């Protein structure tokens, strides 16, 4: 009888120990919606969560800025309140000044060239040297799908000269710099105010891929799209450094593998969906007007001529070694 009670006690203790060591819920937050058709961030998150669930780990997803907007989510990730946050480039630049280098216009042309450049330049290591001071670990990027081009309400753009004096919405001062070099008249407008700016004429266009316009519900507000292949739109996979460092080695492997799985699924989705998003804007009445021969080279030359006004010359010199 005593042996039976002892065995039962040992078994219960073992079970209790296992439960105590179980990995806590993983809190994931992002700005988009739980839409596998249109939302690139959620495509990554869904695959990431499925991978962790294979190890019995529960993932709680907070979409649509329910954990706060970009700056709020960044701060909560830094503090360990959010485990994984999918943020925009502006948020990343709060953590790492060097990260601005990866968002230079015409640095790369598509997802594949961006991924190659990030790997060959040791970009994540450089970013995390700075980001770790704020409690952030950048694990990689989830692609929006498609490449950057120019949307507008005014006229077909097939040459650099066509952009002259166009009032373009700029995301920030960096975009003001290169759009001005194009000959445009950029003005900084928040993304939330962009629809109103387009409707009132404060801006007549902006610099984005079709996927962003579809996801934002702006198709009916725009008339023309010019593909520039000026680079993909990376969304930033940020981890709480404190949260990650307190995981066991085994749990870190689970998380690393889940991130790799999520990125792989996201990349496959981005390639498949590029034509879908172009079809969606066509169906919505947007005319696609390709650049005339030789004109993309003019956009590249104008944009790259002001890279050193956006980031330090030493960073331009370094990253240029990895540009095609």
Automatic annotation (TrEMBL):
It is found in: Periplasm. Residues 1-22 form the signal peptide. GO terms for biological process: transmembrane transport. Keywords: Periplasm, Signal. GO terms for cellular component: periplasmic space. It comes from the Bacteria. This is TRAP-type C4-dicarboxylate transport system, periplasmic component. It comes from Salipiger mucosus DSM 16094.
């Amino acid at each position: 009888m005593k042996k039976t009670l002892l065995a039962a006690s040992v078994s219960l203790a073992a079970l209790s120990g296992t439960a105590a060591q179980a990995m806590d819920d993983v809190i994931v937050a992002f700005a988009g919606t739980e839409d596998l058709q249109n939302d690139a961030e959620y495509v990554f998150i869904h695959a990431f969560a499925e991978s962790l669930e294979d190890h019995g780990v529960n993932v709680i997803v907070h979409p649509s800025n329910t954990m706060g907007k970009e700056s709020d989510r960044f701060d909560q990730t830094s503090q360990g309140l959010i485990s994984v946050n999918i943020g925009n480039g502006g948020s990343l630049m709060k953590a790492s000044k060097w990260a601005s280098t990866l968002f230079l216009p015409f640095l790369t042309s598509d997802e594949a060239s961006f991924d190659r450049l990030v790997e060959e330049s040791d970009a994540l290591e450089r970013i995390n040297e700075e980001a770790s001071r704020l409690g952030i670990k950048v694990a990689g990027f989830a692609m929006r799908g498609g490449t950057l081009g120019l949307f507008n309400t005014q006229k077909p753009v097939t040459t650099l000269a066509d952009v002259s004096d166009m009032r373009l919405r700029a995301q920030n001062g960096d975009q003001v710099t290169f759009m001005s070099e194009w000959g445009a008249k950029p003005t900084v407008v928040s993304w939330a105010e962009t629809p109103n700016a387009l409707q009132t004429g404060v801006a007549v266009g902006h610099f984005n891929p079709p996927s962003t316009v579809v996801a934002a519900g702006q198709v009916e507000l725009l008339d023309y799209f010019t593909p520039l292949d000026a680079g993909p739109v990376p969304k930033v996979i940020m981890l709480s450094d404190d949260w990650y460092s307190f995981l066991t080695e085994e749990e870190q492997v689970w998380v690393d593998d889940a991130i790799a799985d999520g990125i792989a699924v996201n990349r496959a989705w981005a390639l498949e969906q590029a034509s879908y998003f172009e079809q969606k804007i066509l169906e919505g009445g947007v005319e696609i007007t390709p650049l005339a021969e030789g004109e993309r080279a003019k956009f590249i030359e104008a944009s790259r001529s002001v890279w050193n006004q956006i980031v330090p010359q030493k960073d331009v010199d370094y990253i240029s070694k990895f540009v095609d």
